[in-house]
Amino acid sequence: MAKLRLSNPSRVQSSDQASDRPDDEEKTNVDIPNDIVEQVVERTDGVPLFVEEFTKVVEESGALADGSSIDLDTIRTSLQDLLLARLDRMASNPDVVQMGATLGREFTYELIDAVLDVEEAELQDELNKLVEAELLFQKGRPPKCTYIFKHVLIQDAAYNSLLKKKRQQFHRQRARIAVS
């Protein structure tokens, strides 16, 4: 039996991830002070997706851009909460990401289009928002494309945000399409 050794990234790697954000015109490109970087690393325990999401919240707060300080205690402290808050801030139709999560880590455009009662233009716009927000990856072009959640924890956060009644409805819709 082979052994797989897993280790958390070092504090240096986590600090680098929190402070060295890629240049992108959509990003704020704010230099995060070292003391904030250290607090982010401490709170996220160096988990890469958690570091990334926590750093995005710090950047999106705008506090650093205008020179004011930020109280990290006001930021939600679980990865699930950070991901849900990010989805909430996107100002998009939650049914799209939630149905995608119901369909699985990977789903086709044709399938989500078949199960959701959303106009095609709106569906494409909503999926593009999720791709631009780096929550989904897209392979190909609609209608012959596949979407993949960037991380299973993002899929889980979207799926777990469904109320029981809505989750059952989505599963019925998926089953209806599978049978037909």
What labels would you give this structure?
180 residues, mainly alpha, 3-stranded antiparallel beta sheet, 3 strands
Description:
Helices cover 55% and strands 8% of the residues. It folds into two domains: 58 residues, no CATH class; 89 residues, Arc Repressor Mutant, subunit A. It is built from nine helices and three strands; from the N terminus they run αααααβααββαα. It has 180 residues and is mainly α. α3 crosses α4. The N terminus is likely disordered. The chain has a three-stranded antiparallel beta sheet with strand order 1-3-2.
Please give a quick description of this structure.
The chain is mainly alpha-helical and 180 residues long. The protein contains 9 helices and 3 strands.
The CATH architecture name of the largest domain reads: Orthogonal Bundle
Strand content: 5-15%
Instruction: Tell me, briefly, the overall form.
Output: elongated
Helix content: 55-70%
Distance between the termini: 44 Å
Radius of gyration: 18 Å
Q: What's the CATH H-level superfamily name of the largest domain?
A: Winged helix-like DNA-binding domain superfamily/Winged helix DNA-binding domain
Taken in chain order, the helices and strands follow as HHHHHEHHEEHH
